[in-house]
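Example 3.2
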Amino acid sequence: MKKGMLGNKFKIIGLILYFVILFIERLLAVIFSYNKGGVYALKSGSYFNYVAYGVTVISLIVGTVLAIKPIIGMLGKLFSKDLYDFENNYKAIVIAAMALLYGGMMHTGMTIAPIQFAAYGFLIATMVVRCVEKCIEDKKKAFPSIVSVIYLTLFSMTVPVCYIALKLRAPQLYLFYIAEFAAAFILIPVFGIMLLKFYKDGVTSFSFVYPLIMLILSGSAVLFKWSEEINYFVLIFVILTTLFYLAFGIVAGIKTKK
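Structure, written as tokens:
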């Protein structure tokens, strides 16, 4: 068996399942929720839903187009004795994955969160495999690689899903929508940049800029809806990500540069 064959196949499976599961969940949501899903049904006439459905449809189209070539390439190597050339395709894969993720961050009618989390779980699994590969390749980078996986996983959970605000009034209503959409639209590519570096190097970037951006954007999204509802999920992961970065990320960044 070629060196790295098992890890190569596991990454292929994980990435393909991420794309397929998230694509199917989002596609079915768009098709069957026109008049279902209560306030999130497209038929409800809410401007929020027009934007959310528009972003989801564009995300499905762009994500699928960008993912076709990498998926065909990975499928071609899945049952062969050849390795898929991840090194030269990580960028295309991450861009496609992030394009599809935009749709996943839009709450529409008939959103099935457990299925979405299953898709994200397979993406995280590929990160774990890459970490194992890095630990075997360079034991000196084992600590920053392990920290990278945990940090990236926590960071990804701070990206807020865009929800409707039912009780807020202007100007707080507008500030909340600006904050949550800005957080989603900016933090997805930030996560993508960090993920791409991790895939390529086995260690992500520990620049203080990224958690600072996350803290401002996701924190604002939570804050502006606080009087109506506290998004405990995002709030908890913002706190955990910040604390983990301060406790381990800075040290891992120093060790990476040595």
